[in-house]
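Homework-ish question, so no full write-ups if that breaks the rules, but can someone show me the predicted structure for this set?
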Amino acid sequence: MSNKSFYITTPIYYPSGKPHMGHAYSSIIADIFARFKRNDNFNVFFLTGTDEHGLKIQREAEKNSKDPKLFCDELSSKFKELTNILHLSNDDFIRTTEERHFKSVIDIWTKLEESKDIYLSKYKGWYSVSDEAYYDEDEIENKNNIKYSKISGSKVEWVEEESYFFKLSSWQDKLLKFYNDNPKFILPLSRRNEVVNFVKKGLKDLSVSRTSFNWGIPVPTNSKHLIYVWLDALTNYLSALNYPNTKDEKYKRFWPANIHIIGKDILRFHAIYWPAFLMAANIPLPHRIYGHGWILSDDKKMSKSLGNILDPIEIINNFGVDQLRYYLSKEVSLGNDGNISFKNLTNCINNDLANNYGNLCQRVFAFINKNCDSKIPSLNKIEKEDKKLNEEIVKSISDLRNLIDNQELNQYLKKVINISFNANKYFNDQKPWSLKDKDPDRMNTILYTILNQIRSISVLLNPIIPIATEKVLKTLSIEKANINLESLKNTEELKPGIKLKKTDILFKKIENDN
Ligand code: MSP
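A: Not a homework solution, just the prediction itself:
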């Protein structure tokens, strides 16, 4: 087993309704990075799950006349099903209603109390149940006599109750120093600046318990209070590693997390509250928080109240899972918001997947089946064009690795698609079909070179479109367990004489209605 480890997480989702495209997006993005790291010989732990406590869930369960636990069981299972539908490679699925999670939340709370970072007082202010967040007076606006958060647009209500507070204010300077010492802790940089400016304006102590409902984890020393759902939820990242047992192999190997992938709406919780809680509890901080943009539907963030929810399952049933994964990672610029449309989805499938990568594989395999007895040809007359093509890939590996390590997913894909475009061009320019009788040695060398390109492109695209690339690699007798980035440096890895396995069609072209 590799000694390089990598721990990556998605946010844990509120099972307050069925999963939608926004949830699918966070998960797909995290899965792509997890898969890339596995192919790059890292020992990866990839976590996702559901965030099941709090007033939002309690009210939703009440609306549906269900016991909150049963309500969560039903909806959490939909999120779990989605992990399969999206073809996620998660190693665990955590639910905050599990015993292992309670233990770790209680431990964190106890540590914060012991370090005197928690005190009892009274909260008076605005609360959004939908965001499970407190807002200041200047973050509220009034529309038709209803109060909304200016930040999220969700309704807020007035809360006045006894509450425990976390001394967030006393962590302000330490947080600023940490951001300064770790300039890539928050990415993309625009989000880092937002957070730094917010913290510089001054932090107020944070209410971390509620008394007016009962669905949550009670404060260990005062069961009238429930632990604030965000303190509860964030701790999931530790619970899955068997924290508080810090001697546990999983904890030792994977904490601190390498990256928490989240949406920009939950940046404050991850980039301010979470590191402050951890510092106070004397636990090492994660290396990175990456806040992606939103998937917009009709130019707006999807939400139940707006009724503009896009269902990932419906899209997958109509277009395919690789197709959706590819489209979201290529066409939405990772740090920014992106509108998605069926027209763009169709174009993307047809141009990049069917016409470019898919066509390259099908054409080459068909040619070899017909002219080379379906066998991987031998390499015997290498020319400079072949070397150049091979060198391009070998040279680009470290750049591609860097792009992924900085979450520059769009740049990464652009580069890989360009490699695929060049491979198609090479095939057209070299015209192996014209050499069949004239120079079969040269024809074989061209075919070997192009198969090596197909192998390389498939390995590079594997984190994004795992199903199709695994089919292609299987055709070349490369099994899933042997998909490996380093192997691209060996341009003679394919074994001549081995028969190509059968592949069915990779990507169907989509008829455009317009
Ligand atoms: N339960 C909290 C997260 C706790 S993490 C310790 C939560 N859940 S959520 O279900 O509301 O949202 C989870 C993730 O989905 C967030 O990262 C959010 O940004 C993402 N998305 C929800 N709608 C989205 C879009 N329309 N577009 C992209 N992602 C968005 O917040």
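Now go work out the reasoning yourself. Hint: The radius of gyration is 26 Å.
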